[in-house]
Specification:
alpha/beta, seven-stranded mixed β-sheet, 28% helix, 25% strand, globular, binds adenosine monophosphate
Length: 541
Amino acid sequence: MDMPLTITTVMRHAEMYHGDREVVSATSEQDVQRASYSDVFRRARKLFNALQALGCQPGDRIATLAWNHQQHLELYYGVICGGYVLHTINPRLFDDQVAYIINHADDKWLFIDHDFVPLLERLRPQLNNVKGIVVIEPDDDLPENLFTNVHSYEDLLSGQDDNCAWPELDEFSACAMCYTSGTTGNPKGVLYSHRSLLLHTLSVSLLDTDGLGLNDVILPLVPMFHVNAWGLPFRAPLVGARIVFPNRYMGNPQVVSKLIAQESVTYGVSVPTIWQWLLDHLDQTGGNLKTLRKAVVGGAATPLSLFERFRDDYGVELTQGWGMTELCSAGTLNVPGPDFDSMNEADRKQYPLKQGRPIFGLEVKITDDEDNALPWDGATAGHLKVKGPTVCESYFGGTEAETGVDANGWFTTGDVATIDPDGTIQVTDRSKDLIKSGGEWISSIELENWAMTHPAIAEAAVISAAHDKWTERPLLIAVKKPDQTISKQDLLAWFDGKIARWWTPDDVIFVEQLPYTATGKISKLSLREQYGDYLIMGSGG
Ligand code: AMP
């Protein structure tokens, strides 16, 4: 039958077969609020009716500045299934970037958590097209004077019918958008169609990818504004898993560990830093992760020690995933196959560091600088390119040149990787972080991984620093663990025998902490700005 592949079908399926499954949201550091998927979708209907009453037109961008909670899930479905475009904004970007994004997307209404009222007060003079704001759970008085139209979320919903006829939507129509912040120029908008998000949801849910099911309790420790919390707001209702939202406490390990234990969480996803904080907290408090069946890490390179700590100290399998805003989230997941047991010990140990095999529908290749395809031999590194129904075709309102998709449909990811004969990918760098020393590539990620196997090192970043003779050389910037001492020489000697000698960083800078981006990744751009000339300024010797 000719039925469009829309996100509305996820909602219908969940409502018919998993309506009683629970949606839990932290409301404070101590308390949670409970609802069922049926409750959520009932309120999503009210929201759709409210959006119509506000005069929203099909395709209008409805933006959110909100944490991970039930109301945000209601917005996901009320906006998307109502035929509007849900624009989830990252509030941690610079003010000017947030203002740019709201104006560029031409957002009509902003649904915001009360924490973001001060942000909007600062941005207000730059926002001319926004019709009004809706504050989710205002903490005291509504900021009435901020915009002509200011509503409280509950008041907006309370007058509405919880029945509606959802519109019949074209599966190729846009339904959600996220901006990705490049290192140069303005952030770029990625639009998702119903079809791309549905196909991504199905592909990632397969057993040998993520294998989520009815018995899972899912904890998204990535913000709902970072690539739709990696698709979990669609995957959980599709398979009927319970979902536990940490609200604004994602980076608060006390709250997170309590939620995991209290709600018997079986599955969680996050970036390396957040997982690290959680394990550090559990180490200190003697806590455990007994209910957790699987954890996924992605978004940035992950040190081997994190996989080992999860497995050896907490009995949890930590799986690596690689993805991008432009890919609806996941591109690969590293699930061991039948060959794993017959691998030699060294390969088995290093295996978690790979990003894994592509999800269904995603084609991959690596190329040299002249766009010639390179072999899948697990050794040759090249520019990673992808194509498939979950890949962004062009940026919202962008010029042709910005698109990144070539005439044959290949999207340049900006990552550099090797590919094994079975399609397993290992990312060795971002193109812009590459170190090209004397014309040869050095993998900063491999150097960081080795540096972090040193027992005295907590965090490490390797950047390309300008060099008189070799043009570029690796420079290691490291954070020591508390109470640990180590000299530069000893840390550099740690690389002996582990890598080709000429890969050894030229120098080490110890710092108290590394700079992070708005999505929790180490900001190599800031490090390059600060230390890029370190080796030629004489300070590096
Ligand atoms: P974003 O669109 O903000 O999620 O950023 C996507 C980029 O994050 C990718 O192009 C990679 O450079 C990086 N990334 C994502 N997952 C991983 C991973 N597992 N290992 C290394 N880098 C990653």
